[in-house]
Amino acid sequence: MKYGFFDNDRREYVITDPRTPTKWVNYVGCLAFGGIVDHTGGALLCAGDPGLNRITKYIPQMPASEFKGTTLYLRVRDGDEVSVISPFFTPCLDPCDSYECRVGLSYQKITTEIAGIRTEVTIFIPAGEAVELRDIRVTNLRGRPVEIEIVPVVEYSHFDALKQLTNADWVPQTMMSEKLSLKYGRMALLQYPFLRKDDAVNFLSASRPVNSFESDRKAFLGDNEYGTWACPGALAEGGRLSNCEARRGDNIGALAIGMGSVASGDEVRTVTMLGQDRRERIPFVVEKYSDPAEVDAAFGRLADFWQENLSVFQCETPDAEFDAMVNIHNPRQCYMTMNWSRYLSLYQLGIGTRGIGFRDSSQDVMGGMAGAPSEAKELLRKLLSIQKPDGSAMHQFYPATMHADCGDAEEEKEKGKLVYGDDHLWIVSAVCAFLKETGDYGFLDEEISFYEGAIPIDEREGGSVFDHLQRALEWTKRNVGRHGIPLLGYADWNDTVNLPGDAESLFNACLYGVGLRELTDLCRFLGKRDLVARYESDHAEMGARVNGVGWDGEWYVRYFMESGEVLGSSDNAHGAIYTNAQSWAVLAGFAPDERALSALDAVNERLNTRFGIKLSGPGYNAYDPEIGGVTTYPPGAKENGGIFLHSNPWVMIAETMLGRGDRAFEYYSQINPAKRNDDIDLFEVEPYCYPQNILGDEHPQFGLGRNSWLSGTASWTYQAATRFILGVRPAHDGLVIDPCIPSAWDGFSVTRKVRGATYHIRVSNPGRVNSGVVGLAIDGKQLDGTCVPYFTSGEHEIEVTLGEFGAVREPGSTHSSEMAVR
């Protein structure tokens, strides 16, 4: 607990030392308006498009000691002495008598005591609004009256974020600020680059009158800008700011808000507003949030949203860190990834070619749909609309315009490899998961157009959602290589392996197998017997091919190059075994029992470490242009023998399908960030969310995490925990309750809301087994099997008993669940 602790009663993580190993961040708002706030008050905010409508200048590569985007100063006059305090620790780095940053559900609350002044700032964005509020309360603890001036500061980015870094002449000439006078002595400082294509402007305002303001960074820092943020000349002089309305240069917004003389023990309060809106609306926004009651009400509505969102699944188990993640932090991260994809983080900054990923969001939506089904449905519509008529999909899209492109594969146009071989297949699982969660089968009949580039939307070919799913499977069925295995295309899920020619991917074959099982299950439920027979036949055929050419003796291979050379084989000195070939062969139902056990045992023996399962190994130790980007990393980093966390929950799920709950939970615990809280100087990233990757044991910094928050790890680990370890998952015909838990657990409980009803589930495990339901009762009535029929309302009590002689399903059978369960 060197840097903080979990406060699960308040659903917060509490940072108690501002000197964290790297910036720890939180998300506020949504894609329409929002971004990240770090633990020292810095903020990276955007509206709609992080690359083309950036608001604040947040450059993660700059030293952590510097503030980024936004900060706060207090100017305190105590008799004849004037001092400047930085309540967020940066950039003044004043020693804190106490420091606390509460990382909450879409809010950040920073409380510090420095030199006898206590400051509490709550940072959040009201639902549906394009304004960040900072509710600032300052208390005088000095034992005598002092005069206090609150000075919020914003450093603006040019709205075209990349130009901010690449055009040092044109950008400063277009930056400008303007004062807007408001009622009751208030004002708003507008940041107004006139080249914007709409009439929205950025504004900084406050609920109290402003004594003076500044909009030019050079004037604020002083000494011809040789002054520093740690000691800005305009504040050190103790006088008024210049009231400059800058017409060029590096724009900032700084407001000097006088709070007057504050008696000892008294608290004063003001609210600052940083937003983007039409000029004529700004006075109404400022007036609204100048009322403390409106601010409090908006914060209360935020709490109500999260209470509703998280209440769909709550558990109580013998493992406190498991509960903290499953009940609070993991579903919160799932919601953020469903909203942001990989669009804006400290690691993907939405600049240039990074859009909302088809593959990414198809997976993210599965983790967030239970708490936000309407938002999930709208995202599914957008994803389906960038699927092409042939069944393949564009790799990414930009939500402001719905323009789509092929991502990095655009560089491969001349080679004809514009398709990622897996993208289109993910939507099958995503839509089927949505149907099971909501029962909204009418969605299958909804007409959605296909993506046809420059053709106007109303002239594009359309098809039902069900048609989209069928075309996805048909594309893969048609596009296979010399072994009958689906083509890799530019890449599959592992973006860094880019093989020339018509290379083949075992992963794509297995993802196709999962898609076939999903549609088989759906068609069986819908009574489409002819399609059931077709998809079962296709599944058997692909399974035979995978087992005919893909088995290496102890595990499954990963790729076939066009030449026939195999990657992921014991014959390879590097990259001899890939995790995903093993887990997905089980998930797809292709691996017979003996091979499934052998493949997963090989993962455990050859790829598992105390910090998680490596994606492959041994790592490549030299660049190989025939294999691609994976060989540009040193061994143990990222996809080259690193612990790529996204792939770990797939192994957890596969282990539960074999009934091995102890191993599944071991894998879960290894990557649970809450369990790294006491080891944080090695792990470095936030202990309250999953990172994308951890350096593997071939790297000298083994155990270091990076790329936190926006990772598919969030969705899949949540699914592994809730649907497969705890075993509570919606199916087409009912709620399946089929746990696969550690044998040390004597039981657990879950509350699950689905399709209008609430289920209170209590599982007892008197025999300390991993799995096997020997008794299930609902509202006192005994049922056979593991599937509880849906109710449409009310609260229902379910008692489940595990035992050694629980029902055993045949390998490869389906049970109306996301994936076949053994």
UniProtKB/TrEMBL annotation:
Keywords: Glycosyltransferase, Transferase
Domain of life: Bacteria
SUPFAM superfamilies: Galactose mutarotase-like (SSF74650), Six-hairpin glycosidases (SSF48208)
Residue stretches making up the Glycosyl hydrolase 94 supersandwich domain: 11-292
Residue ranges of domain Glycoside hydrolase family 65 C-terminal in the record: 729-765
Domain Glycosyl hydrolase 94 catalytic: from-to ranges: 305-727
Name of this chain's protein: Cellobiose phosphorylase
Phylogenetic lineage: Bacteria, Pseudomonadati, Verrucomicrobiota, Verrucomicrobiia, Verrucomicrobiales
